[in-house]
Specification:
Chain A is α/β, with parallel strands linked by helices. Helices cover 36% and strands 20% of the residues of chain A. The chains are: A alpha/beta, B alpha/beta.
Chain lengths: 1063, 347
Amino acid sequence: MKKVLLLGSGALKIGEAGEFDFSGSQAIKALKEEGIKIILINPNIATIQTSENFADKVYFLPLTSFFVEKVIEKEKPQGILLSFGGQTALNCGIELEKKGILKKFNVKVLGTPVKTIEETEDRKKFIKKLNEIKVNSIESVAVKNLQNGLNAGKKIGFPVMLRVAFALGGKGSGIARNKKELKKKLKQAFTFTKQILIEKYLNGFKEVEYEVVRDKFNNCITVCNMENFDPLGIHTGESIVVAPSQTLTNFEYHKLREISIKVIKHLGIIGECNIQFALNPKKDEYYVIEVNARLSRSSALASKATGYPLAFIAAKLALGYSLTQIENSITKKTIACFEPALDYCVIKIPRWDLKKFRNADLKINSQMKSVGEVMAIGRKFEEALQKALRMTETGFNGIQSDFFSEKKEIEKELKEPSSERIHAVASAIKKKYSIEKIHSMTKIDKWFLYKIKNIFETEKKILKQKNNLSKELLLEAKQSGFSDKQIALLINSTEEKIRKKRHKEKIFPVIKQIDTLAAEYPAKTNYLYLTYNGKKDDVKALEKNIIVLGGGPYRIGSSVEFDWCCVNTLKALRKNKLNTIMINCNPETVSTDYDESDKLFFEELSLESVLEIYRKEKSKGIIISMGGQIPNNLALGLEKNNVKILGTKVKSIDSAENRNKFSKLLDSIKVNQPEWRELTSFSKAKEFTKIVGFPVLVRPSYVLSGAGMVVVFNEKELENYLKKNELSKEHPAVISKFIINGREIEIDGIAKNGKLVIYAVSEHVENAGIHSGDATIVLPAQKIYLETINKIKEISKQIALKLNITGPFNIQFIAKDNEIKVIECNLRASRSFPFCSKVIGKNFIDYAVKAMLNKPIEKTVDYFGKLNYVGVKAPQFSFSRLSGADPISGVEMASTGEVACLGTDLYDAFLKAMLAANNKLPEKNILISLGGEENKYALLKPIQKLVNQNFNIFTTKNTHKFLKFHGIKSKKLFKVQEKKEPNVLTFLTKQKIDFIINVPDKYHSKEWDPDYLLRRTAVDFNVPLITNLELTKLFIKSITEKRIEDLEIKSWDEYLKNGKTKQ
Amino acid sequence: MNQKISSAKLILSDGTVFSGKSFGFNSSVSGEVVFSTGMTGYPESLTDPSYSGQILTLTFPLIGNYGVNKISELESNKIQVKGLIIDDYSFSFSHWNSKKSLADWLKEFKIPAAYGIDTRALTQKLRAKGTMTGKIVIGKNTEFFDPNKINLVEKVSCEKHQWIGKGNKKIALIDFGVKQSIIRSLVNRKIKVLKVPWNSNLKELDVDGFVLSNGPGDPALLKKPIENIKELLKDARPIFGICLGNQLLGRAAGIKTFKLKFGHRSQNQPCINLETKNCIITSQNHGFALENKMKNGFMKWFENANDKTIEGIKHKTKPFFSVQFHPEANPGPLDANYLFDEFKEKL
C-alpha cells in the first residue's frame, strides 16, 4: 500500500462535527508513520487535517461520488479509508462501491469491508446477523412504504420508535405515540430514506455503549464503556454521558462487554466501532440498539476520556497490523491491546444553541440537535458534573437549583426535557420533591439524582454558614465542584474574595495524570486535569512554557476554525523552541490530542482554572487571541491578576470591544461607522430613529455571534423588541443605523507593534444584513474597486497603529456608494483565518506567533487581487435537524459549519462550494417565490436565463403574476397555507421540485413573514433552498455558465503552485 | 449521612499517613496494603479469598454506587479483606439487584473502611515501594501485622471434603482459597466437583482430573501441596491451575517463582496465547510469578503482553496446564472463560 485516499466529513453540521477532524488527523499521522502517501478529500478548509504537512495532497471538493471518482481517476490510489469521515464518508463509500467505481479503478477498501458496513447500516440485515448469534435486538419491522409502516405500528403497539437507516445523528428518528404522529413522521422520513425501522419503544431503559476495537487476527477489546445519564429516548448526542458506567454491576458491565465482542467479531469489523445497548433498569434484560462501523462522536469522546487514541489505532489496524504490535503511546511501556483503567470520572454535556433559531422546538429527544459538547474530568461525580456545566459556556456556574421556580414548570421540564432539564432536577430537589418522584418523572437512575442532591446539600450548608465559611466546608464545596464564583454568588461575595480566602486556607487543586492504567505501572503522560479530590500533584512545572487557551465547546459562531488557530499556535511555539501548554475542554478537537502540546490540561477555560494552572506551571505567558471569544473575554481578569498576556495589550482589546471607546478611537482617525447609540429607554430609541430613520439594528451590548440581534423596520417592532428585552444601565442595548444594500468587506491580518505584517481582504456575496458567519465569502475580492480596497487598507493601517496591535485581528467594513464604514474590529484570530491562510498559502498563525514573541519577520505581504484563482467559503446550515426553525439567514448567525473550495474563477469555486455545503444543483424544476418588487425586478433577467436553458419554473401567486406580465411562462402553485391544489406541499411530497428560491422582501421584518411555511417545508423535504438575492443572482449565473462536468479537479498545492501571486 | 462520621487514618509501615473518614466498621486493623485498578466489581473483590489478610485499595474513586447483591452470588461466604480504602463513597446507592449498602455490609462483617483518600497517590507509593504493611486506624491504635508471615491458605481453605454439583465427570478442586466463580464455572459445565482442603493427599482421590485454585500469599510457603502435585505429575490425569494454582503447578515442575516489581492487580491485563498468537484481556491479582525458565516437559503457554512475564504454562505431552490470570473472572472480563471448556474436553 503506497497511496491511500482518505475521505473527510465536510462541513460541521449537527450530528457530524469536529470529531472527524480529530479522527482524520489521527489517521493521517498513523499512515505517515508507515510512509504511505495520503490523498485527502475534504472541503472543510478550517480543519487541521487539511493543513500543510498533513496529507500529501488535499482536495477541497464536495464529498460526493462524482467528485471522488474524478480524484480517484486522477490520483490512482490503491486503498481508500471510509471510516474516518463520519456518515458522510461512509455513505459516499457505499455509493462508490455500489456504482462499481472502486472496482473499476482497483481501489481496496481498508479496514471494515463495505459488506460489513452495509450489514450494520441496513437494519434488516443487521438484525438477521444478530439473530444468527442469538443476541437480542429490538423487535422491529423494516418498512418501505407508508401503509406497511402504519400496519407495523399497529402490530407492535404504540408508542413506537422510528429509526432511519443511513442517517447521521438519527435524523428522521423519533417516537410516535399514536397513528397520526406515526403517519406524519413516516411521510417526512420517506423523503430522504427508502427504509424506516419501526420498533418497540423501550421506555426508561438505560442506554449504554461500548467502544470496540478489533484487528484482522480477531483480537478484540472494548476500550471504554459509557452510560447515558438520560434514559433511552434521548439521542446519545443529546444526552449527558458518563464514562465509565457508574450504575452497572460487574455482572452487567461484563455481560454487555462479552456481547459487544461477540457481535463485533461476528460482523467482522476491522478497526473501531461502537455498539449501543438498551439495558433494563429493573431486571436482567438487554437489547442491542445499533452498531456504528466507523469512528464516531462517541469514539472521539472515548479517546479523550481514556487517553486511548482510537482513530490512530484504527488506522493502523486498517493497514493490517495486529493490536499486539502497536504500543500504547501514553505509557510507551504497554501495548495497545488492553483496556484502559480509569481512576477518575468523565462527564460529557452537549452544547445546544436552540434559542438562536426562531420557532425552533426547544425539546430534546431522539433527534440530535446539539451543536457541540464539553467533557469534564473529576474524581467525584459532583465535581465533574459542575465543571462540565460551566464548560458549556451557557451562563451556568454549576448546577442551579433556583433556575426553575414554579412547580408546574419544573414538572413539565422533568417530563418533557429541554436542554435545561438537569437544573430542573436540582430545582425539584430544592422544592422537596422526593428522589423517587423525580425518578418516576424522568426515569433518570436514582444514583445520578442522589449525586445532584449531594450538590444541593452542600449548597444549603454554604447558605447557612454565609460569610463564616469554615475551611472544612470550603474544601467540601471545592471537592463537589463549586467554583469560586459560584460560592461567591451564593453568599453575596465576590469571586476574588473567595479565591483569596481559599488560598489563605491553602485549598488548591492538584494536577492528576490520565495514564490509561490507574497508576498500576509508571507512565510518562502529559495528559492532565485538575481536581480538589487529591493531595498530591502528579507532575512538576514545565520549563519555559507558554499557555494557549482553546475555544471551548463548538457552538454556532465558534468551531473548528479556532481549533485550527490553536493547533497552529502550538506548532509555531514549538518551532520557536518554547514548551507549550494547552487548555481546552472540547473532546471533538485536535488541540486536545495530547501529542499536540507538551502538556494538555483538559480543563475549564475559566479565570479560576487558568489562574491555578498559570500559578502551578510558573508560565511565561498566555495566548488568548486564538480560541475565539471565550479566551478573549478573560483578558481583563487575567491582567488584573498579573498574568502576562502575549500580543496586543489588554487596554487595546478593551478599546476595540467597548463600543464607546472604539467609537472615540474611530472619530480620532476620522473613520466612519454606522450611527449608533447606547439604548437605555424606548423614548431615547425613538429619538434616535427620528434622526437616522428605519431600519435599525438592535443588539445587546454583549454579543456572541450575533445573539439577540435583530433588524427593526418600524416603531411598532422597536417597541415589541424592547418589551421582550428589558433594558437597564448595566445591560444596555445598542441601536445602530442598518444600511441596506451595502457590501460587506473583511480584512484578516497580523500586525506587529502596530504595523501590518500580512493581511487579506475578502468580500461577502450577500449584502449587509447577513451575519459574516453565514455569508458566502470570496477571496480575493472580485467585485470591489481598487480604490475601495486601498481605502480599507489605509483605515486598517491606522486602526492597527492606534491600537498598537501585535498579533491577529479582523476588521469588518460596509461599503456603499463609495463610502466605507467600520462595523466591527476584533483583536483576535477570526473565523476566516484558516480560509485566508489556505487560499493564500501563507500560514497567518506563524506570523502571529512570531509577532507576539517579538521575533523578526522577513517582509510584509498583502494578498488581494493577486491570485489567478478564487476561493469561496460557503456556510453549512443544519436546519433540517431543528424542527420548526425558520431556515433563513439574517443578522444572527445560524450556520453550524462551513466549507471552502478553490476554483479557476468565481463560478467554478462557488458551485463547488455550494455542492460541498450539501446543496444539490437543480436538474429541471425550480420553484421561485419572491417578496417585494425590488427582488422581482432584480431577478427578472436571471430567471429568463433559466427558462432559456429549459428549466421548468414554478412560482407562487405574485411572482407568477409578475413573470407573466414580463412574458415569462411559469407554473403557478398555491402556497402551503392556501390549502388549494396544485399546492407546493403536494409537489414537494411527490418530489417534483429540485430547488427552491425564496427571497423575502428585505424591507419587511421577518416577524410576520408569510413564506416561513414554504421554507420550512422545503427543509423538511430535503429540497435545497436559497433565500438571499445576491446569492440567487450568483447561483443562477453560475449554473447557466457551468455544468458540473466543467468544474475543475485540482488539488490545493496545484492551485498554489500554478497560481503564484502576480506580485 | 446524619450520624457522626469518624475520622480514619491509613498509616503505612514506612510512616506515611493518609487521612480520611470511616464508613465501615469503627475499629482499627492492620494488614498488607494492596490495590486493584478494576472499575467494577467491588462486592466480588471484597469476597475473593486471595485478598485474605490484605487491606484493599480501589483506584477507581467512585465506590458503593450499586450497593451489594446477595452473598450467594459473590465469591465466598464472607468479606475476605481486612480493610478497604477508597476515595469517594456513595452513601446512597441504586440497583434493582442490591440488597444493602456497602457500608452496612462492611459493618455486618466488622470490616473497617476509609474514604476521602487520594488513592492515586497511595497506589503510586505502593507501586514504587512494593506492597507494604499498613493499618487503618479508627479510634484506638493497633500494631502493624504482616500477614505474609503466616500461612494464609490454611485460614481460607475448607476443612473437609465436599461434593458439589452433578455430572458424568468428577474432578477434585484443591481449595487454597477458591473463588466461588471457579466452582460455578465447573458446575455449569456439568462437572461434579469434590472440594478438598489445601493439604489433602491427592493421588488416591477417585476423580478424572484436578483443579488447583487461586489463593493468597507466597507459593513458596506451601511445601505440602507442591509435594502432592509432584505426585500427580507422574500420572496423566488432567490438571488445571489458576493463579496461585499456576505457581504451585510450576513449582511442582521445578520452575521457580519470584516477586514481581509491579504486581498485576487489574482487570485489563493483555495475555497472548503463544500457540494461537491471540491476545485476550484478563483479570489478575497476584504479586508472584513463574520464572521464564521452563523445566520437565513444560512449555510457555501464555505471556503477558506488557511485561512479558509468564501467564500460563502447559505440559508438552500430558494434559497439565495452568494460567496466572482468572478465567472465571468476577470481577473482570470473561475472555478466558473458554479455558474451562478446554479443561472439560481433556477429562
